[in-house]
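Below is a filled-in request sheet from our internal design queue. Each sheet records the structural input a requester submitted and the sequence that came back. We keep these sheets so that new team members can see what a complete request looks like end to end.

REQUESTER: design group, bay 2
PRIORITY: normal
MODE: inverse folding
CHAIN LENGTH: 203
BACKBONE (tokenized):
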């Protein structure tokens, strides 16, 4: 748990690798690089945290993690302290939205980095538009009344609903749009309709 990691500073934390992503996330919890170890280890005492399948965390764990980070960073998700922004996430690689410019143009019509900057952006967003992927983990820090539009990739007739489950546990409004599996494109009309649904629910 977060409490165990923070309170027992003498404990080392075993991670798969010490890349910038891992280091940055743990830094949000106040855990420095010097506490991380990798590879084969010997320990007199081993603490193994409760684990869940991808996208199925315990609701209590999600709320605790969200509250801890937002409090530590002195961030508020209260409506009077937020702007009226729509956050559009862009991906590269196999899950890139190939008509991103078109998607961006649609989002801008409806619109009134560094890891820490991303947490801040998500914590103040009114609407989030993002393709399915790790960046949506930042939605944990979004306000309770945020509307999330997830651009989903059908794979062998299946759609990964992990972020829908997280949204449900946090009380977020979640709208899924299926992308064309051959071209990785999003239908503009579908995005328009989703943004209007978000606007009607957020007003």
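RETURNED SEQUENCE:
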């Amino acid at each position: 748990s977060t409490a165990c990691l923070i309170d027992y500073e003498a404990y080392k934390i075993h991670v798969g690798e010490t890349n910038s992503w891992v280091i940055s996330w743990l830094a949000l919890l106040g855990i420095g690089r010097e506490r991380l170890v990798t590879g084969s280890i010997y320990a007199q005492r081993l603490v193994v945290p409760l684990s869940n399948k991808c996208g199925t965390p315990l609701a209590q764990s999600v709320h605790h993690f969200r509250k801890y980070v937002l409090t530590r960073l002195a961030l508020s998700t209260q409506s009077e302290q937020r702007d009226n922004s729509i956050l559009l996430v862009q991906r590269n690689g196999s899950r890139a939205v190939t008509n991103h410019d078109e998607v961006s143009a649609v989002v801008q019509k409806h619109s009134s980095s560094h890891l820490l900057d991303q947490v801040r952006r998500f914590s103040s967003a009114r609407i989030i538009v993002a393709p399915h992927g790790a960046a949506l983990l930042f939605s944990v820090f979004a306000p309770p009344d945020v509307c999330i539009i997830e651009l989903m990739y059908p794979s062998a007739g299946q759609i990964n609903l992990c972020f829908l489950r997280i949204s449900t546990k946090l009380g977020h409004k979640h709208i899924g749009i299926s992308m064309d599996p051959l071209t990785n494109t999003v239908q503009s009309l579908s995005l328009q309709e989703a943004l209007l649904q978000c606007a009607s629910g957020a007003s």
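SHEET NOTES:
- The longest helix spans residues 188-202.
- The CA atoms of residues 1 and 7 lie 10 Å apart.
FILED BY: M.R.
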